[in-house]
Amino acid sequence: MSIPSFGVGTFRLTGQTVIDSVRNALDVGYRAVDTAQIYGNEAEVGQAIAQSGVQRADLFLTTKIWTDNYAGNKLAPSLRASLEKLRTDYVDLTLIHWPAPGNGVELGETMAALAEAKALGLTRQIGISNFNIALTKEAIAMVGKGEIATNQIELSPYLQNRKLTAFLKEQGITVTSYMTLAYGKVLKDPVLAAIAAKHDATVAQVALAWALQLGYAVIPSSTRRENLASNLLARDLALDADDMARIAALERNGREVDPQGLAPEWD
User: Strand runs (DSSP E) across the chain, as ranges?
Assistant: First the structure.
């Protein structure tokens, strides 16, 4: 099993907006969809998939367990509820959404419950999200090397997370990049704009191609069909060594997401 390199995200999308986004994404060629319990849109994602006509076997579905459901007796039941909303018997990947240190549930208990959900067939793969190096090491120790498919983390040209991504690569854990466009901030970047002009591409395509060339998976979202289709073309954009070096120089520790009580101490 592996993680698809390109999927559609659904963060902050609800109601008819998320239904339209997912249906448009599937219609233009996406086959991986990322959601989460806390997004409050699993039922709408399930509806969009059901209406799309795309076969379940051709899709890769990811959801994330919310902190309220980290206890050993809550995780699997909450995942079953997610499956019901998504109208499927299993998801391809289930992640622990945030480390949430100090929330009263030991990481070992949560990881054991996640591994049990996999053993029960509720999810094909398991992983983590927003984990630093130390917590990733703990998670690996609890479920075994090779069991954690991905760590989904905030990454953009402004937040390149080199220490963490190097560690994940060493461990054979796929990096999934979210917020790759930094809430749209990178779209105004003159360096990226110059690279985009050179390749007759969009700035979004350049940022996504940068992440793909580093070996990361990406899950950009959009409410516009034309942007969904345009983003997908990043797979065909080959940046040269000079482009990659110029983007590397944009690092500024520009973190956009850092919720108190949920986030770890970042590397």
Answer: 8-9, 32-34, 60-65, 91-96, 123-129, 148-154, 174-178, 217-218
Task: Kindly report the backbone phi and psi dihedral angles of residue 241, in degrees, each rounded to the nearest multiple of 5, phi listed first.
Answer: -60, -35
Spatial CA neighbour of 173 closest among 197, 148, 152, 193: 148
pLDDT at 1: 62
136-141 long-range contacts, CB within 8 A, separation 24+: 136/164, 136/167, 136/168, 136/171, 136/173, 138/107, 138/108, 139/96, 139/107, 139/111, 140/171
Can you list the domains of the chain with their CATH numbers?
Answer: 8-184+214-224 (3.20.20.100)
Angle at 34 between CA 168 and CA 237, to 5 degrees: 70
Q: What is the mean pLDDT of residues 10-28?
A: 98
Q: Is 199 annotated as a binding residue?
A: no
Question: Hey, which residues are catalytic here?
Answer: 39
Q: Write out pLDDT tens, residues 65-107.
A: 999 999 999 999 999 999 999 999 999 999 999 999 989 999 9
Burial of residue 112 (CB within 10 Å: 0-12, 13-18, 19+) is: middle
Predicted structure pTM score: 0.97
How far apart CA 100 and CA 259 sit, in angstroms, is 9
**What's the pLDDT score for residue 102?**
86
